[in-house]
Design goal:
36% strand; alpha+beta; 3-stranded mixed sheet; 11-stranded mixed sheet; 5 helices; single chain
Length: 267
């Protein structure tokens, strides 16, 4: 893995794997194939996306992206998710993230969406990474953002856990984030890896990662995604509940959902 310059500002799709391992009190692990989008949000806003990419943007499609699925739900006419992000950064005192913003997220598939986590890579005008916003959703319809200030690829970032995600984890301890990106090669547009580990007061508890090889979004790669993962969104929700049942059967302690944090952003 290496520090990579920003790739050409064209929408990308990633094919890879998501992994999850709980270390205690009962070990529980799984890995599934997945796909995701990597979207240059400023470039998308500045073009007629319907003619510049086969991805359905803010319109119906087998695989689509909609601004209202992120942030505070602003429509494209209201500036969309990018306007929400820029406002969030300004509120947090970050005014120099004026370069490209790459959004790593799950799309809508056949009209359905659930985005457990999305990553906003915010760059300065000179192309250097300035901030990463980790946008987390839970199954209760709540959302929270972790803002990582001045991150670096390959260097661990940390944040205190304040947001309820799983009833089998207390809202305590912290997260360790690591982001990696390889440069584009002859056969693909590079590779991305995100690792998020959760530590509680005792030590490492959960290890998760999502990784994938990036390719240009074309009719062919969209067909590959749809045919390979035709019900991905529904599968994500089904797997969340299936693994919750397994943890319950393993007698892992169940925690009731606390109140959501008062602040929408944690630094």
């Amino acid at each position: 893995m290496s520090h990579a310059p920003a790739p050409p500002a064209a929408p990308l799709i990633g094919f890879g794997q998501v992994r999850h391992t709980r270390l205690r009190p009962r070990r529980h692990a799984f890995a599934y194939p997945t796909f995701f989008l990597m979207l240059p949000m400023r470039s998308l806003r500045g073009t007629h996306t319907s003619t510049h990419t086969p991805l359905a943007v803010n319109r119906s499609g087998a695989i689509s992206f909609h601004d209202v699925d992120h942030g505070d739900g602003r429509s494209a006419a209201q500036g969309g998710a990018l306007a929400w992000l820029d406002e969030l950064l300004r509120t947090e005192g970050i005014t120099d993230a004026t370069g490209e913003v790459w959004l790593h997220c799950y799309p809508r598939v056949l009209g359905y969406t659930f985005k457990p986590v999305s990553f906003w890579y915010c760059h300065r005008a000179d192309g250097h990474l300035r901030a990463i916003v980790v946008e987390v959703n839970n199954t209760f319809g709540e959302r929270h953002c972790y803002l990582l200030d001045a991150p670096q690829y390959g260097v661990e970032q940390q944040a205190r856990k304040v947001f309820h995600v799983s009833p089998f984890c207390e809202v305590s301890g912290g997260y360790r984030f690591r982001f990696m990106r390889t440069e584009a090669g002859a056969q693909d547009a590079g590779r991305t890896v995100v690792r998020i580990d959760h530590d509680d007061d005792t030590g490492p508890l959960i290890q998760t990662s999502v990784s994938g090889t990036l390719q240009a979004i074309t009719p062919q790669t969209l067909r590959q995604a749809l045919w390979g993962y035709p019900a991905m969104t529904l599968a994500i929700i089904a797997r969340i509940h299936w693994h919750a049942l397994q943890l319950w059967l393993k007698r892992v302690r169940f925690h009731r959902k606390p109140e959501a944090p008062a602040a929408a952003v944690t630094r």
